[in-house]
Write a structure and sequence with these properties.
Structural class: mainly alpha
Radius of gyration: 28 Å
Number of helices: 9
Helix content: over 70%
Number of domains: 2
Number of strands: 0
Strand content: under 5%
Shape: rod-shaped
Order of helices and strands: HHHHHHHHH
Distance between the termini: 12 Å
């Protein structure tokens, strides 16, 4: 009875993990949209700083006059767009492709001092976009690693449960299964209850630590019960754990 229940639980976990893995490909936009608000909030400090630098440059009695009128108008339009809706501006930057940051690249600015000031802004915008892109990529990678690890480990656990016949192998397999299911539940809880603001800002995801923990537990479980796997099933008089 316990054996069948464990097999069912492991297979259910594998199926759910496969569904999560598939969703990172077919519903990638939905997943990233859920984290979008946090990413934008954590990008505001950098974007506000850039906006302040741009305003300071435009208001400068020296630099402001060195910027050609056409470039100045475009910079003022970008600044007004940002201040009108920072999140919309940041979202357009994140979704605008690799060339979007080049909106700040004005070849008509020939003065060395003005060129340097604008290049600093261009670099800052480019780094801001890279940060947001990396946050989304890190989230998707971590979800795929998490789901892939669960698929493999749940499948192995179901197979071991199926072939285990002796009381000793079932004893250790029950302990292994309980440990694995416990780690899985705790990881799910920690994953969705974690400080997403900090995680998306720093890229502090579970990473390879999760597969390392479950991989070690799986290998240990296999080694511990492998001597009993080739033994016959217990007789009716054999003790049942």
């Amino acid at each position: 009875m316990y054996r069948k229940l464990l097999i069912a639980l492991h297979l259910a976990g594998a199926v759910l993990s496969v569904a999560l893995l598939v969703s990172t490909f077919v519903a990638k936009g939905i997943i990233t949209s859920k984290a979008q608000k946090v990413v934008l909030e954590n990008s505001r400090a950098a974007s506000d700083s850039l906006a302040a630098k741009l305003q300071k440059t435009l208001d400068s009695p020296v630099l402001g006059k060195l910027i050609p009128e056409t470039a100045r108008q475009e910079l003022e339009a970008e600044l007004a767009s940002y201040r009108n809706s920072p999140d919309t501006w940041l979202l357009s930057l994140a979704e605008g492709g690799a060339d979007h940051a080049k909106v700040f690249d004005f070849p008509e600015i020939e003065n060395v001092i003005a060129r340097k000031a604008v290049d600093v802004l261009t670099k800052g915008v480019s780094e801001l976009k890279d940060h947001m892109d990396e946050s989304f990529r890190g989230l998707i990678f971590d979800l795929r690693l998490f789901a892939s690890t669960n698929v493999v480990v749940f499948a192995v656990a179901a197979w071991l449960t199926w072939i285990a016949r002796t009381p000793m192998s079932r004893h250790w397999l029950l302990a292994f299964s309980g440990l694995m299911l416990g780690v899985f539940v705790m990881s799910i809880t920690a994953y969705f209850d974690q400080n997403w603001t900090w995680s998306l800002l720093t890229g502090s995801y579970m990473g390879w630590g999760y597969p390392a923990i479950l991989g070690f537990a799986t290998v240990y479980g296999i080694l511990r019960i492998s001597p009993d796997l080739a033994l016959d099933a217990p007789t009716e008089d054999s003790p049942v754990p």
